[in-house]
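Appendix B, Record 12. Input sequence as logged:
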Amino acid sequence: MSELTHLSIGQSWLNPGDDDGTRTVVVDLGPEHPSSTGMLLADARLDGNLLREVRIQPGFNHRSVEKLFEVRDYRQILVLADRHDWQAPFTGELAVALACEQLMGLVAPTRAVWLRTLLAEHARISSHLAHLTFVAHRTDDLPLQADVRSQREQARRLLLAGTGNRVHPMMNRLGGLALDLTPALLVEFSAWASTASELATGITGRVVETGLGQGKAIIDGAMADQYGLGGPTAIAAGIYDDLRITGQYLAYPGLQQELTLPGGPFTPDAQGRFLVLCAQIHQSAAIIASCVERLRNIDGPVDTKLSKIIKIPDSSGHLEIEAPWGRAGITVVSRAERTPWRLALRTPSFVNVQALQAVLDGCPLEDADIAIASLGWTSGDLDK
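Logged structural output:
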């Protein structure tokens, strides 16, 4: 085997070569891929062109967020929860809000429930498009790259119009939402989702046409179960465990027809995972369209009036929702004070990167970018 090799995923902040005999290889997933921050490293040895003895090195973006939760009150923690997965920030704040509401016995108004569902699916499409930028980059499809960039920019503009923020919506409040969305803006959300669905059809065609990821980075059902993988990775492996169907939260019980996933059966390789992302964009677009239609006939408030100082009863609980890349779990422990005694996160990025170490072992160096891109993660969601 050759010398130790550092794989710098995204961009490198290491020296290209060192006196100790190591070298650095930059694995480029594209300028717009979530990995572009360069906050994940992997050490490996090369056996010919095959990666061996792979060891992932996360933690470079660790910010002690779980400790910070303990010194924030229950209004402030929602803003902090918005910060770890910046490809789907609404999902983080939603999960914490639902977990706290569960302990409080608090039920959000009906209109807020449907708006939360719409915004959760908007976040799912936005996240999937961010990870699918790799397809256009790897296949050198500049028109597709421009289309994806334009669609992601429009997603940010919709958030800005509805929440006042382009990236971090900070919309959730305990018992509902901070703001309502106007009927005209809801129509724009629906039109945007429809365009995203059309774009997903084009991405699907490009993946199939080029054979991108076919037969590479296999993750079968046994491996998905071993690592606790969910979301698109588990679906491609033949495990369809979607909490939007089984979890009975938000407005999903009334959207079971829309939750039927188009396409399939999918293959347990990188190509299959790319295709699941595209299929879920179609699925989310249908859900958003139905939410907009239902909201035409749902009036009323979107928030719940609470006292200035919020204390959750002495209790603990765990809640999981279906984040874009699988199960996002929140554990809350309260001692009936203004701040949580403990708030722990179980993020899909963390389990995906754990599996990445096994996936890369034996992978040809020239296919490392495909393997890595097919397992979604965001450095903030990984390192917390």
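Residues 4-57 form one domain.
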